[in-house]
Specification:
mainly beta, 11 strands, seven-stranded mixed β-sheet
Length: 127
């Protein structure tokens, strides 16, 4: 059974940093893409950053501040978030899908097309 466990969220001040982790069991990163998605209060879930076949993608609002990475041995994905802003507040989810396409396409997929989701971790950026 495939399981994703996201962690690392919490409360941070504007300008601070946070590192999210997503431990994945039951699948290989060699054949699966992984992405970080977030849902801000009152907004739809959006793809923030994704990695597929070694290629990465970031939405414009986080470029230069967030870095996605993955450890294929530990099957863990990370999202290093720097210079956090209040608009980064939300529940962050990790999700996987078979890596048949680009990282940007993965991030822009309708949520019901991703194969498996983690439970989410709340990030709150206070001003």
């Amino acid at each position: 059974e495939v399981q994703l466990q996201a962690s690392g969220g919490g409360l941070v001040r504007v300008g601070g940093s946070m590192n999210l982790s997503c431990v994945v069991s039951g699948l290989s990163f060699d054949t699966n893409a992984i992405g970080w998605f977030r849902q801000a209060p009152g907004k739809e879930r959006e793809g923030v950053s994704c990695i597929s076949n070694g290629e990465t993608y970031y939405i414009d609002s986080v470029k230069g501040r967030f870095t996605i990475s993955s450890d294929n041995v530990r099957t863990t994905a990370y999202l290093q978030m720097n210079r956090l802003k209040p608009e980064d507040t939300g529940v962050y989810y990790c999700a996987t899908v078979t890596a048949w396409t680009t990282a940007q396409v993965v991030c822009e997929m309708p949520t019901n097309e991703l194969d498996k989701w983690g439970q989410g971790t709340l990030v709150t950026v206070s001003s």
